[in-house]
């Protein structure tokens, strides 16, 4: 009944191909299913890739017409604050989305901005689906946080299990929350690019790094099967995370 789709990051062509492969049909209102299925977009639709705004338009049309679901990612949160006119740093990929947006006519700009802001504002921080048997959350969701929202939970869901420590490239060190997850509900998430879908303790990280030359992956629920399309972007192996299965 659901097809969870990992971080798109402006890879519209791959997203379009994946949705067709999953059997979705297209209309002016995005995609829809003849088999009572819905795509669930796991956030980070934009930044770094070649067609961020097309991805926004398509996902917004699909979700706002009731044919799909969406949860925000950290890049979505930043784009939202950009559209609010906040003083934010335009980097880490946001510069590509802003450049696309600045090339549009002013009327098209306001349409895209309104669509995205509506999509973002109607989205819950995470979705509980199938009567709470499965959660969709951008960077993950701990068992104790399920059913709750707070500032701390928001940070976890958008950015992951980050620590105060920085690695040698200046990014926060991420803890491996999935390794100690003990919930009975599935948590489907993305955010941390991995070479292949990582399933562990009823968690599934399906961000297979499309924008870094990996693949765009969908996880079908309740079948728990994956469908992937190859990326059209250059492969950047250093962008993919490897987990040490020994350390905690
Ligand atoms: Mn992210």
TrEMBL record:
Can you tell which superkingdom this protein's organism belongs to?
Answer: Bacteria
Q: Which GO terms describe its molecular function?
A: phosphatase activity
- The Calcineurin-like phosphoesterase domain covers 4-194
Q: Name one GO cellular component term.
A: cytoplasm
One Pfam family cited in the UniProt record for this chain? Metallophos
Instruction: Extract the PANTHER family matched here.
Output: BIS(5'-NUCLEOSYL)-TETRAPHOSPHATASE PRPE [ASYMMETRICAL], METALLOPHOSPHOESTERASE
The protein's matches in NCBIfam families, at most eight in alphabetical order, are given as: PRK13625.1
Its name, as the record gives it, is Protein phosphatase
- Organism per entry: Salsuginibacillus halophilus
């Amino acid at each position: 009944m659901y097809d969870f789709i990992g971080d798109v990051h402006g890879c519209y062509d791959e997203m379009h191909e994946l949705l067709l492969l999953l059997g979705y049909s297209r209309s002016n209102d995005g995609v829809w299913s003849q088999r009572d299925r819905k795509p669930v977009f796991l956030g980070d639709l934009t930044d770094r890739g070649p067609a961020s705004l097309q991805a926004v338009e398509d996902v917004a049309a699909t979700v706002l017409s009731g044919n799909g679901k969406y949860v925000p990612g950290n890049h979505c949160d930043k784009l939202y604050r950009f559209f609010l006119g906040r003083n934010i740093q335009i980097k880490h990929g946001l510069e590509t989305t802003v450049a696309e947006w600045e090339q549009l006519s002013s009327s098209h700009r306001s349409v895209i901005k309104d669509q995205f802001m509506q999509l973002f504002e109607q989205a819950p921080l995470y979705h509980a689906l199938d009567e709470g048997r499965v959660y969709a959350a951008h960077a993950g969701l701990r068992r104790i946080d399920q059913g709750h929202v707070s500032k701390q939970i928001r940070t976890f869901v958008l950015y992951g299990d980050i620590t105060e420590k920085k690695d040698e490239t200046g990014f926060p060190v991420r803890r491996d929350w999935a390794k100690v997850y003990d919930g009975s509900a599935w948590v489907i998430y993305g955010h941390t690019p991995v070479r292949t879908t990582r399933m562990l303790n009823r968690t599934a990280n399906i961000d297979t790094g499309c924008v870094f030359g990996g693949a765009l992956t969908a996880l079908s629920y309740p079948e728990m099967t994956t469908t992937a399309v190859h990326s059209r972007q250059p492969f950047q192996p250093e962008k993919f995370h490897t987990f040490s299965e020994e350390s905690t």
